Each structure stands twice: as structure tokens, then as C-alpha cells.
Amino acid sequence: MKKILNFFKNLFAKDKENPAFNLHHPDVRDNVEFAFEVGGKKYYRFSKDYKCPTGRFKYIDAFLYEAELRMNLKMLNAYCDKMLKELDGAAGQVRISELIKVVWAIQSRCKLAFSPETIERLASVVYFDETEDLSDYNEEHGNKKIALWKKHDFIGFFLTTPIIELLNLKGFSEESFRIYLQEIREAELLIKDLTLEPGKGLLANT
What we know:
Structural class: mainly alpha
Strand content: 5-15%
Radius of gyration: 21 Å
Largest sheet: 2 strands, antiparallel
Distance between the termini: 55 Å
Number of strands: 2
Mean pLDDT: 85
Strand order of the largest sheet: 1-2
Order of helices and strands: HEEHHHHHHH
């Protein structure tokens, strides 16, 4: 009896680490291809976006929207909260100058070629490892992937299909793209600095 219980215990533990609907599942294995390797870990993608399971594709759709806005939902809500606070006269008066700063920040973000943070989030859904449940998306695991890519200073996914097509980055070498990426990051920091709220840090982090 004990052996039977241990068998099922080990079986479920294994499934938790390697869910049945991973890249080896018969419903998806023929639609998956190798993308890149970072830190000894291999990452894959679906050969065609429409072959991605619905449960995971909804996150691709959501993160594509963030990429289009050049900001995530948390950041957009922070800008809205800042505007409402100023319109409400919380500082004793309606400060038009502060409202202009927020509008300028939103408009400036929309004019950026792209926001690296939103593309990293998108890439964490598009590219997956062998252990991931492809019927859904685990944000905690996605954040760990992003952390690993940053640890190894890996930017290759920016220049890999489908991201390269989304951002129209064809023709960039990795070296020239690093310079371009740094310029965009600096532009983002400038926007954040101009919407700094004293005592609360950058607006994007509120």
C-alpha cells in the first residue's frame, strides 16, 4: 500500500514540475521550434502565432497592447491617478503645470520606438522552456525568465522572430542594437524623471 501511495505522490510531484501540456505534448510538439539558449537553458516558440493555445495567447494579446502603449497597465493607472489628484485640487489648487507634465509623459511614451520593459514581458510569454504549461501563463515564472536574461545580458530575443518583425528591427546588428536600446532606456528615464513626485519616487513605481 505504501509503495502505491509513493508512486502517486511522485507522479503528481513530477507533473507539477513538468506539466502534461508542455512543448512535448502531442497537440503542440509539431508546432514548436527552438528559438535561443541562455545560461544553458533552451527556449522555444510556436512556429506560427495562431498555433498558440488560447489560454496563453490571451496573455500575448494583453502584452501586445502594453507594447503598443509603451507602458504597462500599472504605469498607465499611475498616470491617471496623478491627473485625477491634480484635477481634484489635492494640493490646494489645480496645478496645470503638473497636468501638462503627465500629458507630456504619456505622449512622449507613445512616441518612443518601443518600451524595453513591455517587450521583455511580451517575450516572456512568446518564448518558453520545457517545463512551462503552454495552456496558460505563469507570471512568476515569466519574471524569472526575464531575470535570467538580464543576468546574462541577453538581448537576442529583441532580434528574433516574431519580436524583430513587431518592432521592425530588421537590419540591426546586435552591437548597433545595443546602442539603440541604451538610447531608448535613457529616454524612458528622462520621462520618468520629469514626472517625479517628491517623496514617492518615480511615478512608474507608485
